[in-house]
Each structure stands twice: as C-alpha cells, then as structure tokens.
Specification:
With 288 residues, the chain is of the alpha+beta class. The protein contains 11 helices and 14 strands.
Length: 288
C-alpha cells in the first residue's frame, strides 16, 4: 500500500487519477482505518488529506453561513459556538457518531461518504440544505448533500472525486432545527431510526420546512411531502398528524436484528413529531 500526503486538493486528485488500483481518501479515518484493520478494504493507495491547508477550519461565508473543513472533528464542531447556535440539529447528529474518543477524529464529510443509510450526521445536513464542494479529474462542482447518498455504502461521487468542504447556509430569522434518533442502547449504537427537521416561522406560522429521515430506506431521504404537511400551519395536532403520516408513507425500512420494518415505521412517525416540536420551539427565539 502506498501512503500519500498531498499539500493541496489538486495534488490529491492528481494522485488518485494516476493510480490503477483501489484508492481511499483519509480525513478523520474512523471508517477507513477500521475497515483496514478488519481487512474489509485494503487500498493500493491511501491519500491522507489532513495536511492540506484549511481542512481543519470553520469560517463564515459571505452569505452568513458556515464553511466547514473536511477534517473538522465532531468534538471541534461541538465546541464552535457559532455553528452550535445556528445549526444545533446538525451538531446534535454529529455528536452522536461514536464514542468520546471517536468524536476526536470523526468528521461530517467522512460520515457522509461512508454511505450508511443510518448515518447520524447526514439527516441534519440534508434538512439544513447543506452543500458540499467537490473536486475531481473533471474540475470542481457544488452538490447538495441530498444528492450524495446512492445506497448502502455507495455515493454519487465519481472515481477520483473528493469533498473539499461542507457549507451550511445562513440561519436567518426565526429558524430552528433538531435531530433525534432511536437506538436500542443509551449510546454508541447504530440508529434504528433518525429524524431531522429544519423549519422557519413567521410569527407562529411555519413558512419553510425540510424533513430528512435516516435508517428507513436504502439511503437517507429528504421528504418534501412531510415538509408540506406542516408548512402554513402553527404545528397544531392536525399538522403533526399529517407530518407523521407523510413520513411513514415515505419510509421503506427493512427488518433486522435491531427492529422490524413495522416497528421502524411506528418510531419514525413518533420521532418526527418530537423533532418538529423542538425545531419549532428553537425557531421562536432565533434571530437573523
């Protein structure tokens, strides 16, 4: 195995383009290093991205959002007052990834690129409308987070492409988000169901919403019908019931040792209402 430490993303892409075998990029390493140790994957070329300037930075965008480097750990994200204030749901999801030790290395980009339908950080990013910057042999492009997952352990990234940063949009006034999951144990388990809700209010009325569901389909889902169920409402009982029904209808879960498909559908209907109430309450006190 050849180990590379490029000093720019362009150099990393050039290295990947020049290989003929299996290639893996390394940012946090909490997935790829485990796969290496378990002999699940043995890459011919391992490209370490942590030496590239800016990959550990969190910076404000010109529009008032946040640009997050691909090597920013969950622990670092959780200590950033600005991101926590604007996007607590995104931070909540990332801080559920693994143990305290894993939090010191795990990254948003790595969790997204792992392609797990149960990834905890991805629903929050998806609900937030986050974008990823991608560079590859064909150049650079901006991609919505919801367009990255393709199925279990698969993404839409092309060979040689790598994410260079994740951008969260400006929070704006009266906006709130939340992430909740159900697991069999109290911590360090894989989500049986994960739910993220992001919304904006005008007074008591919801004017915008995005709902993302995890672990209930082959990939994490953005569900416009669930969002439409609460837009225009004040999150009354009827709206919550419609939200639950739309989320259940969009879910196509499997049965496994952690829960049956029927159980997962029941849980998603409950969790999405709880997450919506939290996001709605957070939006009340949010300012531009």
């Amino acid at each position: 195995m050849r180990f590379h430490t490029p000093k720019s993303f362009e150099q990393a892409v050039a290295i990947a383009a020049g290989t003929t075998g299996r290639t893996r990029f390394l940012a946090g390493g909490t997935d790829v290093l485990v796969q290496l140790r378990a002999a699940i994957v043995t890459p011919d070329d391992l490209i370490d991205l942590k030496h590239i300037p800016g990959v550990k930075d969190i910076t404000r965008t010109a529009e008032g959002g946040w640009r997050i480097g691909i090597a920013v750990s969950g622990a670092e994200l959780g200590r950033h007052a600005g991101v926590c204030a604007d996007w607590p749901g995104v931070v909540e999801g990332m801080q559920l990834v693994g143990s305290t030790q894993v939090q010191g290395r795990a990254t948003l980009a790595g969790n997204l690129c792992n392609g797990s339908p149960a990834a905890d950080s991805v629903p929050g990013m998806m609900a937030a409308g986050a974008m990823v910057s991608v560079i590859g042999p064909q150049g650079s492009r901006e991609v919505a987070v919801e367009d990255i997952p393709a199925g279990p352990s698969r993404t839409t990234l092309q060979p040689g492409e790598v994410i260079t940063a994740i951008t969260l949009p400006a929070r704006g006034a009266q906006g709130g988000d939340a992430y909740l999951r159900f697991i069999p144990r109290t911590e360090m388990d894989i989500a049986v169901v994960g739910v993220a809700v992001n919304l904006r209010r005008d007074g008591t009325r919801i004017t915008e919403a995005r709902i993302a569901l995890g672990a209930v389909a082959p990939k994490i889902l953005l569900v416009p019908a669930a969002a439409q169920a609460i837009i225009g409402s004040s999150l009354d009982d009827a709206a919550l019931a419609a939200l639950s029904a739309a989320s259940i209808a969009a879910s196509t879960p499997i049965s496994d040792k952690r829960g049956t498909a029927t159980f997962r559908k029941d849980i998603v209907g409950v969790l999405v209402q709880r997450a919506a109430r939290i996001a709605y309450a957070r939006a009340e006190g949010a300012s531009a």
